[in-house]
Specification:
- The protein has six domains: 71 residues, no CATH class; 48 residues, no CATH class; 121 residues, no CATH class; 118 residues, Sandwich (Immunoglobulin-like); 149 residues, Immunoglobulin-like, CATH 2.60.40.1930; 150 residues, Tetratricopeptide repeat domain (Serine Threonine Protein Phosphatase 5, Tetratricopeptide repeat), CATH 1.25.40.10.
- It is built from 23 helices and 25 strands.
- A hairpin with a 5-residue loop joins strand 5 and strand 6.
- The longest helix is centred in the first third of the chain and has 25 residues.
- The protein is globular and about 110 Å long.
Length: 686
């Protein structure tokens, strides 16, 4: 009954999606409607169909179709897509052979549908020309276990009433009586119908109660429920064989990635964990393992270039932080041989202020024009006084770093570097490393507190190990190793609880798998060392995030700390100047930016613009005009500089110069109604 309920739920979901999409389908150009409703109707998943119907342009639809076939190509490195070729060959065959004697095209018939999904049967037995039975065909399939189907099974088609197309036979819905031209017994007496059919056609009778050879239920004269479940399974084979996540990624990133990337989504494994520095600063540690890494070869050298873009947005959609990294990789033949069978895992980290966010990371391979991505929600807590446990990190190896080295590394607690596989799969001969941090432990809590490590196999508790907190000398960092030698391969969960007098105070858990395999291709890691936690770059990053969050006063404190420690950084100076501009601290802007304007090398355009605006606000209009003119000399004409310059001239009473500047601005961009009004007003006063 649970299986039947699941089938009806799937069917209802498909009908619901179809109903939502019906209007969109009617608006499709004819060739795309034909592709959707005829060519791929049996092999496209509901998600793929839903995404396709949301596309707005023919260019997007063409790219999606390209991606659709690419994700079904069994040999993507070759020019031919064997799946696509075979699929259209099956459609042509179905139209040629199964549309005869019916107004339907062959692909629309039951035989056509099954042929398109499963291909040519291993054997076909035909039952025709008998007065006692309607024309029927029994198709036998073998070797489809990779599709999740039995080792061998039949499909039966028959002409109901002896005319029209052959329809798919169901032992449960039709029964043996439907195959006979005359049956006068009880329509619910399947055994009697079976026995009568056996007299005429023993071979046809054999498949009338079950489509699965050797199934016992048929021996008792009952139609097989498994046969109907088999038919349902066959219908969903194409959907179950494809990971349709790529379609959602196509929709999400079609306006973000370049056209040549959009059809080339590859999957990945990823992991994100939050750690905390003793200063109270939280870091987001992330790892992303693309499914494949394509490289180019030139003179026995292998290389690729990856571009990584990350965006952190608040719940209301406000962008809090953005970063971009370029990862250039090159290998010689020996290195390529060593890593060719191992995945690449990129480790990285960045600080983030407390709050709830959405993290989106886009990774592009410029050689293969492939892309992958990860999206997560992040919750960064506000540091307090209660006991805090950071999320568990589980790995297969640790490496101790020198205590004299205070630089930061992703997934490093104290001086212990953790190595893991993002999919959290272990061998039985591995040790599993469990690592996390415990903060705000008073001396009393350290002496009384205990950690309880509990492993669950499925839903049942498998093992529990208590440890006193005083056992760990590197607090707040805790790293604990467990042997997996006597853990049978299965899916597990580990829960860690900090307890006082057997009462749980804080807990966290993580899931992992132990495989039957004898070995795992562990990833090779790309990771860069970061500056120590007290480096001014972190004050700058936190200050910038606070500024983007609208917390201007808090941003000012952090950015001033960064600038005081590194006053020669134009980047630090600019962000601090932006804060001062928002706060109206114009004299402070002059102190921060003037040294850069006096430098012989040309500073950023924005240095001139903010400095000029500050002088305007201070009423020092001659200085403002001078700064804006310097900017035009360095960077050329643009409407922002010209409009600001015109305002300064006008405030100085120099209407001719103001008119000239505004007129040049209008020449660059005529679509400036307010500037046009300003010009007309000045001309009227002349």
């Amino acid at each position: 009954m649970r299986k039947i309920s699941l089938i009806f739920l799937v069917i209802f979901s498909l009908m619901f999606i179809y109903g939502l999409a019906k209007n969109d389908r009617n608006e499709l150009p004819l060739r795309y409607k034909k592709w959707l409703d005829e060519e791929v109707i049996y092999i496209i998943s509901p998600i793929e169909k839903e995404v396709f119907l949301k596309l707005k342009t023919d260019r997007e639809r063409d790219l999606f179709i390209q991606a659709f076939w690419k994700h079904r190509d069994p040999t993507p490195g070759t020019p031919e897509n064997e799946f696509k070729t075979e699929h259209y060959s099956r459609i042509n065959y179905a139209n040629h052979f199964f549309g005869r004697g019916t107004p339907k095209p062959g692909w629309k018939t039951d035989r056509g549908r099954m042929y398109i999904i499963l291909g040519e049967p291993n054997d076909i037995e035909r039952f025709e020309g008998k007065s006692q039975t309607y024309p029927a065909e029994v198709w036998f399939y073998q070797g489809k276990t990779k599709l999740g189907l039995p080792p061998g099974f039949h499909l039966v088609f028959f002409q109901k009433g002896g005319i029209g197309e052959y329809i798919l036979y169901s032992p449960l819905k039709d029964g043996p009586q439907a195959l006979m031209t005359s049956y006068y017994g009880d329509p619910m007496d399947y055994l009697a119908a079976y026995q009568q059919l056996q007299e005429f056609e023993p071979d046809l009778a054999q498949v009338s109660l079950t489509l699965i050879p050797g199934e016992e239920s048929a021996a008792f004269g009952h139609p097989s429920l498994s046969s109907d479940l088999l038919i349902q399974k066959v219908e969903t084979v194409p959907i179950r064989q494809i990971e349709d996540k790529y379609a959602q990624k196509f929709l999400a990133y079609k306006d973000v990635v370049e056209v040549e990337y959009s059809a080339n989504y590859i999957d990945n494994n990823s992991l994100i964990k939050i750690t905390r520095q003793p200063s109270g600063l939280y870091f987001v540690n992330y790892a992303i393992e693309p499914e494949t890494l394509s490289v180019t070869e030139y003179q026995s050298k292998y290389s690729t270039n990856l571009k990584l873009n990350g965006t952190v947005t608040a719940k209301e959609g406000k962008r809090i932080y953005q970063f971009e990294k370029n990862i250039a990789l090159s290998f010689n033949q020996e290195q390529m041989k060593e890593i060719s069978h191992r995945p690449l895992s990129i480790y990285d980290m960045f600080p983030l202020i407390p709050g709830s966010y959405r993290l989106s990371i886009l990774l592009k391979n410029e050689v293969s024009k492939e892309f992958t991505s990860l999206e997560r929600t992040l919750d960064i807590p506000q540091a307090g006084n209660s006991v805090e446990m950071t999320p568990l990190i589980i790995g297969y190896k640790t490496v101790a770093k020198p205590r004299s080295d205070n630089r930061l590394r992703p997934f490093q607690l104290g001086h212990t570097q953790l190595y893991f596989q993002a999919n959290r799969v272990f061998l039985r001969q591995d040790n599993i490393i469990v690592a996390f941090q415990l903060y705000n432990l008073s001396p009393e809590l350290q002496s009384k507190g205990r950690l309880k490590y509990t492993f669950f196999r499925g839903e049942e508790e498998f093992r529990s190990t208590p440890k006193p907190v005083s056992h760990y000398p590197e607090l707040p960092n805790i790293v604990q190793s467990f042997s997996l030698q006597d853990f049978p391969p299965a899916h597990y969960k580990i829960k860690v609880a900090f307890t006082i007098d057997n009462q749980e105070i804080v807990t966290d858990s993580e899931e992992f798998d132990i495989t039957y395999s004898e070995s795992i291709a562990r990833p090779w890691i790309y990771s860069k060392v970061l500056a120590p936690a007290q480096d001014p770059v972190y004050f700058y990053l936190i200050g910038s995030q606070l500024f983007n969050s609208g917390r201007i006063e808090e941003a000012k404190v952090q950015l001033e700390r960064a600038f005081q420690r590194k006053p020669d950084s134009i980047e630090f100076a600019l962000n601090l100047a932006r804060v001062y501009m928002r706060l109206g601290a114009y004299k402070q802007i002059e102190k921060v930016l003037l040294p850069f304007i006096k430098q012989p090398q040309t500073p950023s355009y924005e240095v001139f613009f903010i400095m000029g605006r500050a002088y305007q606000s201070l009423g020092q209009l001659t200085k403002a005009v001078d700064i804006f003119n310097q900017a035009i000399t360095h960077y050329g004409l643009n409407i922002h500089l010209l409009n600001a310059l015109a305002e300064s001239y006008l405030q100085l009473g120099n209407k001719e110069e103001a008119l000239t500047a505004w007129q040049k601005s209008l020449d660059i961009n005529p679509n400036q109604p307010q500037i046009r009004k300003n010009i007309e007003a000045l001309k009227e006063k002349k």
